[in-house]
Design brief:
CATH superfamily of the largest domain: Response regulator
Radius of gyration: 26 Å
CATH architecture of the largest domain: 3-Layer(aba) Sandwich
Number of domains: 2
Largest sheet: 5 strands, parallel
Oligomer: single chain
Order of helices and strands: EHEHEHEHEHHH
Shape: rod-shaped
Helix content: 55-70%
C-alpha cells in the first residue's frame, strides 16, 4: 500500500480524504495543519504523495508548496476550496503536479492522484535524462581537451590522438574519460612515434 501525508487545516477536507485514500490503495501516514511540520514529515516519512490544503499555520501554503516542488520528494496535489480560488495562478506557477477543487468526488481524487503520479514520474525521467546528457557532454569536453593537448604536444592527428586515448584506456582498464584526465594533469602522455 502506498503512503500519503495530508497537510490541511480544513477538518471536513481531512476527514473526506482519510476516508477515500484507503479505497485508492493509500495509507495515511500523517496529518498536520502546520507548514513547518509538513516539511519535517515529508523528510521523515518519504511519502508516495502529499495532499496539500491552502490554509496552514506556521509556514504559508505557498512556501510549503515551493519547498516540496524544489525538493522533488514525491507528487504533490493541492486542494483548493471555492474561497481559495484566488491562489490558483500561484499554485499553477509553482508547477504543482495536480490541483483539485474541494468539494470533490472520490473519482476526482482518484484521477488527480493518477495524474500527479504520472507527471512526477515523467519529471523524474526527464531530470535523469538531462543529468545523463550533461555528464556525457562533460566527458566529451574532457576527451576533446585531452585530444587537443596530444595534438599540440605530440603533433599527431585527431584520429591518432583518440586512438592513443582509447588504447591506453583498454590497456589500463580505465575509462577514456579517466585517461583524458591523466593527460590533462600531465600524468600520462603516449610515447612519441
Amino acid at each position: 500500500m502506498k503512503r500519503a501525508i495530508l497537510v490541511s487545516g480544513n477538518p471536513s477536507l481531512s476527514l473526506e480524504i482519510k476516508v477515500v485514500l484507503p479505497l485508492l490503495s493509500y495509507q495515511m501516514l500523517a496529518t498536520t495543519d502546520n507548514g513547518m511540520e509538513a516539511l519535517r514529515l515529508a523528510h521523515r516519512f518519504e511519502p508516495d504523495i502529499i495532499i496539500l490544503g491552502w490554509n496552514l499555520r506556521g509556514l504559508s501554503s505557498s512556501e510549503v508548496l515551493q519547498n516540496l516542488i524544489v525538493q522533488h520528494l514525491c507528487p504533490v496535489i493541492v486542494v483548493l476550496t471555492q474561497e481559495e480560488q484566488h491562489a490558483l495562478s500561484e499554485v499553477i506557477a509553482a508547477d504543482v503536479h495536480h490541483v483539485i477543487q474541494y468539494p470533490w468526488r472520490a473519482l476526482d481524487m482518484a484521477a488527480a492522484i493518477q495524474l500527479a503520479e504520472h507527471r512526477f514520474i515523467r519529471e523524474t525521467e526527464h531530470s535523469q535524462q538531462i543529468q545523463r546528457l550533461e555528464e556525457e557532454l562533460k566527458t566529451r569536453k574532457i576527451i576533446f581537451q585531452a585530444m587537443l593537448k596530444l595534438i599540440q604536444q605530440r603533433g599527431c592527428s585527431e584520429q591518432a590522438a583518440y586512438a592513443a586515448l582509447r588504447n591506453q584506456a583498454m590497456s589500463t582498464r580505465k575509462s577514456i574519460k579517466s585517461v583524458a584526465h591523466d593527460v590533462l594533469k600531465g600524468i600520462w602522455l603516449p610515447d612519441p612515434d
